[in-house]
Amino acid sequence: MDINKLLRTPKTIAVVGLSDNPERPSYKVASYLIGQGFEVIPVNPKISKVFEKKSYPNILAIPLDINIDIVDIFRKSEEVEPIIREVIDSGRKPVIWMQEGIKNQEAKRIAEENGMETVMDTCILKMHQKQ
Question: Tell me, which fold does domain 3-129 have in CATH?
């Protein structure tokens, strides 16, 4: 997978674990992505809205008519596998992006076995800025 090509054109990114707290890394990254023309879909069961966008409790709650190119995960490493299973259950095949510090080989294996490309332990903001 060519990460630079993936990030060159604005995409729709579901940000799992997106916080409404401007001090949190997920908020800062999502804010940056929005500023770069990406469509961000908040996924967090604890908030109803962030950036004036509806927050969904999980991937399965996002209507299927909303395209998702990337699922950007801001959760603990051990919480990634259930998220991957939700994506599989949704029938979607986005790129799975585990943010910097998030590593889960089993979740990566499951995603790839189900036709999804994965990026692990990498900050999407930093990768976009390198372009």
Answer: Rossmann fold (3.40.50)
